[in-house]
Amino acid sequence: MDFGTTNSAVAVLEGGEVSLIPNAQGAHTTPSLVALTAEGDVLVDTAAERQALTNPGYTPRAAKLKLGTGWRVTRGDIRLTAEDVAGLVLARLRQDAEAYLGCPVTDAVLAVPAGFRRDQRAALVRAAGQAGLNVLRLINEPSAVAMAYGPHRDDCTVLIFDLGGGTLDVSLIGLGDGVVYVKATAGDSRLGGDDWDLRIVEHLTERVRRRHGVDLTGDFAATQRLREAAEAAKIELSAAHTTPLRLPYLAIGPDGPVHLEEDLTREEFETLTRDLLERCRTPVERVLADAEHTLADIDRVVLTGGAARMPAVGDLIRRLTDGREPYRGPIPGAVASGAVFQAGILTGEVKDMTLLDATPYSIGIETNEGTTTKLIERNTTFPTKRSEIFTTHTDHQPTAVLHVVEGEREDAARNRTLAVLELALPPAPRGVPQIEVTADCDANSILHITVRDLGTGNETAVTIDQATMERAAALLRSSRWAGLRGLAPATQAF
Ligand code: AMP
After folding, report:
1. Residue ranges of domains in the chain, CATH in brackets
2. Confidence (pLDDT) at 493
3. Which of 61, 130, 345, 437 has the fewest CB atoms within 10 Å of its CB?
4. CB 141 within 8 A of CB 124
């Protein structure tokens, strides 16, 4: 299953062949949308999309990007978190799959952006649980695309550039002999086609303000119409050089009704969005640096995700890869098709493919009150498990406090806090206790941390999710934090 920011898709493996499953309307993609109506009904997918224009405040977009946050939408007695929304969309996909296959569907492989955080991954697994689905595996979207592209080729290195509605994922992948080997992955979890739409919305809002003296920023219904028109214009500009934007009766101004009548050229659109395009550059440069590859090492470039169809994106990638002509496939359904190969591997149906995926961020703990000591370096192939021994900072330290972080900075405070664990210690001089810390990144890239006092055998363990992150953030803000003592590398001389 590909639970996308804007649209979702499901694929199934039948006799070794991939089929995309049509939804009740016969389409191969389903809007990832849920809506709450004034009558207290909850609408899902196409039904939610049909009324989005008249009910924009209660048809939240991009719920996927809100997974792992405290976001929720409430109307009357109904209250939905991002996890609930994801659960409802996944339940609909499951129903469509069951209708198509004529049998119950209980297990799924789900694709996630490579840059998805651990808490977002854990939230999606729970959402699938709400939809009655057991998640066999989470697969990173670019890895899924590589699986669909086909590992049965001569050894080659492929750059996969996946720009969807809300996220950008870039991976450098080695293919050959049935193996998909992720060499490096990077991305921007806040950059997608929707950002290009918003630029057009801002541009048109400004035009209306200047021409008609009407401020549309607080007008929900007008903004929603602008958004839909903006997306359509963006898509049209991938093929045409100019596009008309006509929105009659957009609002009422001091001089009567405001009708929007604008033409947008591709050139204007590209000027409005130049900085967004520039942001696509960083992850491409980073995967090359991380994998210690040069441009000459890239054999092929694959562009995928709807927003990568913008001509400016193709031009940028051509420039960044020394003029290589990108292959724009194997869309549609690339992500879902790749995910289903992974399902086939797990169930034994696919025997001649292997996926070796890599972690997008380093995992470490704070030592010596401020420094990050890495346990798992970014771009390590997972599943992976690393242990290291640490010790105490001060004499008779009553507890060992483990501040677990994710990120590349040396200054722990500037990385993302994942958890804080506390382990009680018997009195001992500093440097004596042997405290083993284990970071276990499982096949779904979900992280389990264990801290164990080798002297007493006492241990405490946690699986990183939103709750551990929120608890840790609250502790870091509280005054109790100042009194707690962390760990030091066991190799440190006191
Ligand atoms: P995906 O999640 O891969 O389906 O990508 C969805 C995003 O791609 C949305 O922002 C769409 O507006 C955008 N999109 C789809 N088709 C095109 C196109 N032909 N040109 C530009 N953007 C597109």
Report:
1. 7-191+280-357 (3.30.420.40), 193-274 (3.90.640.10), 363-489 (2.60.34.10)
2. 63
3. 130
4. no
